[in-house]
Amino acid sequence: MTTPSRPAARPVDWIAVRRRMAAAIEQTEALLEAAQRDTDAHDEQPPRSAWDAFAGESEEKSVGLVTFMLSDRRFALEIRYVCEIVSKARVSPLPGMPSHACGVYDLRGQLLPVFDLCGLLDLPQGAGAASDWAIVCGQAQPEFLILSETAPEIVVLPLEEIGAAEPGQGDKAWHCATTETGTAVLDGHLLLNDPQFFLDDEQIIASDETERTDIHESPISE
Question: How far apart are CA 146 and CA 115, in angstroms?
């Protein structure tokens, strides 16, 4: 019985291999250059205003707003930036914090910072105005609370009743639109990403520990 002979191995055509590799590299570089051009063109486009984003992200002809009062002036947030509304909010003060940081609020075991927008918006504090209401702001999860002098209201307005606001600087950039009745609509996306509303976890924890000490420690009798 004879063993079948194997066919002789064909020699590798290295010239053809190099040619195919060079073509593949050239094609890859062309795709990367095209992608970079698209990125550069996108970066060169002028940034969209807050109102453009506010009115253009939805195909709906109306928008839901949560309105609230500060210094006898009505403001609003788009409802998608509001998690809930709380009344009779018990705020634990935070010592050494900026004036717009009122303290923290215990929302079902989660400590959230509470802010008063009056100072940031250059609004006078109403004489004797009580801020018993607060709006829990956030999208995927609650982030912080902002105070309201009266009970916030939920309204649905057609977009034609809302107009773009004049471009502002600093905190005035939050003002992205104005309704026909004069309500100033604040840009919820800018608010949620503004560093002025970030507090260190250590500060919040220290406030919680101070509050617990005040509650649980009884005065020592002589």
Answer: 5
Cα separation, 30 vs 85, in Å, equals 54
pLDDT digits (tens, 9 = 90+) for 104-157: 999 999 999 999 999 888 888 765 556 789 999 999 899 999 999 999 999 999
* Phi and psi angles of residue 166, each rounded to the nearest 5 degrees, phi first: -65, 140
Domains of the chain, by residue range, sit at 51-216
pTM across the whole model: 0.65
Fold classified for 51-216: OB fold (Dihydrolipoamide Acetyltransferase, E2P) (2.40.50)
Task: Look at residues 68, 70, 90 and name the one whose alpha carbon lies nearest to residue 79.
Answer: 68
